[in-house]
């Protein structure tokens, strides 16, 4: 493990930028209620900050491997970082929620270009075994997912604009570090712009992509919608949660997700197998969503369930990604791009649907929708299980290959 952190400065530069990029996923979560209140927007409108970001990220993911094969890894990283800096900075100056929604779309494009290329760049820049660099990448992923909501809460307690400005500054530092420290590499082999779309014709990948659509819908109901009923539950108890309180809760969620993703999931998949781990975890997540629907008015209950959800989501992310990497003989970059693109389309639906559904029915209804979506994910996996005959050979991978398989899809 120590060797993983003995890396050239170029690797550290990419890892730093990757950490900040992953932070951007949960950064806006604690400030959604503040944006809704201060910009006179409904919760449904505020949650569209996730939808615009995820739709563009999903579409871009289908073509990032093609772009990197034309532009090169370093140039792709820098283009992605530059886009995030520009659109995050503009979001900090926005005067309406509509402007932020549009700017988050540009942010999503930059994030897709950067994140989809970061793992390959880290592995290519290391001078030692690739397993060490990949462990460092996993660490960056976990730290970013955990710190993003906390930083969003801390800066959001000053102003809802501060998290956007902070992201622009940090990504700007990452841009300079990669510009100065990362050497330009040989251009990767050419990839067809339609390679990822064609990959979905593979029955195994199609089965897992359909599973991921319904799973990711539930994932983003938990992440994007939960700040609103949590804030309401706190108000019902006579307290104000605020951006800092929400940031603390989702920091706990992110830490739980990171721990099980890196440590618990590999152990479970070795003991139970990949597909059984997926089915059990999806079942437990369904129960958790029903519990959230029942206890959405309890502040303590929601906090416990959200953090507990992080534990299950970490297992699910890792197991599903490793299954995708093992299920086909497609190139990993192509399989990961195809899977990630479809997966995040499912995530984009959740914020767009959850707010209007809650407004038309009850605050617990989006969680019941998430539970139903998870049941569909279980059905997709069970129906297509016959196509997953290749899954289960991960014990034959060397450590570097297994680590890469675990993290390749989570990069999105």
Automatic annotation (TrEMBL):
Keyword Lipid biosynthesis: no
Residues that span the membrane, as ranges: 12-35, 47-69, 76-95, 101-123, 135-156, 162-182, 203-225, 245-265, 272-295, 301-320, 341-359, 365-384
Molecular functions (GO terms): transmembrane transporter activity
Span of the signal peptide: none
PROSITE patterns in the record: MFS (PS50850)
Mode of membrane association: Multi-pass membrane protein
SUPFAM superfamilies assigned: MFS general substrate transporter
Example of a GO cellular component annotation carried by this entry: plasma membrane
Cell compartment(s), UniProt: Cell membrane
Residue ranges annotated for the Major facilitator superfamily (MFS) profile domain, each copy included: 10-388
Name of the molecule in the record: MFS transporter
């Amino acid at each position: 493990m120590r060797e993983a952190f003995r890396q050239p400065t170029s690797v550290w530069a990419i890892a730093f930028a990757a950490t900040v990029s992953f932070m951007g996923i949960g950064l806006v979560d604690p400030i959604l209620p503040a944006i809704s209140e201060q910009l006179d927007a409904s919760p449904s409108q505020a949650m569209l900050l996730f939808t615009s970001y995820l739709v563009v990220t999903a579409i871009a993911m289908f073509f990032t491997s093609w772009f990197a094969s034309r532009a090169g890894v370093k140039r792709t990283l820098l283009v992605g970082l530059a886009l995030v800096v520009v659109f995050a900075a503009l979001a900090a100056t926005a005067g309406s929620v509509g402007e932020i929604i549009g700017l988050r779309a540009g942010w999503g494009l930059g994030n897709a270009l950067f994140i989809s290329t970061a793992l390959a760049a880290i592995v290519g820049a290391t001078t030692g075994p690739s397993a060490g660099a990949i462990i460092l990448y996993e660490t960056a992923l976990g730290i970013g997912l955990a710190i993003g909501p906390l930083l969003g809460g801390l800066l959001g307690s000053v102003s809802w604009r501060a998290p956007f400005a902070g992201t622009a500054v940090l990504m700007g530092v990452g841009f300079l570090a990669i510009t100065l420290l990362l050497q330009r590499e040989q251009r990767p082999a050419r990839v067809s712009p339609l390679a990822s779309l064609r990959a979905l014709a593979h029955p195994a990948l199609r089965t897992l992509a359909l599973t991921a659509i319904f799973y990711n819908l539930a994932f983003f109901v938990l992440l994007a919608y939960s700040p609103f009923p949590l804030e309401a539950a706190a108000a019902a108890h006579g307290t104000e949660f605020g951006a800092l309180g929400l940031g603390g809760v989702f920091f706990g969620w992110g830490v739980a997700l990171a721990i099980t993703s890196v440590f618990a999931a590999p152990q479970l998949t070795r003991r139970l197998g990949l597909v059984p781990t997926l089915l059990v975890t999806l079942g437990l997540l369904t129960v958790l969503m029903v519990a959230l629907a029942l206890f959405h008015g309890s502040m303590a209950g929601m906090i416990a369930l959200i953090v507990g959800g992080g534990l299950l989501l970490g297992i699910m992310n890792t197991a599903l990604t490793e299954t995708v990497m093992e299920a086909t003989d497609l190139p990993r970059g192509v399989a990961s791009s195809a899977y990630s693109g479809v997966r995040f389309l499912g995530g984009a639906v959740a914020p767009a649907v959850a707010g209007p559904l809650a407004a038309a029915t009850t605050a617990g209804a989006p969680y019941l929708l998430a539970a139903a979506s998870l049941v569909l994910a279980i059905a997709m996996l069970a129906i297509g299980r016959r196509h997953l005959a290749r899954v289960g050979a991960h014990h034959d991978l060397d450590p570097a290959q297994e680590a890469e398989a675990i993290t390749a899809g989570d990069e999105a």
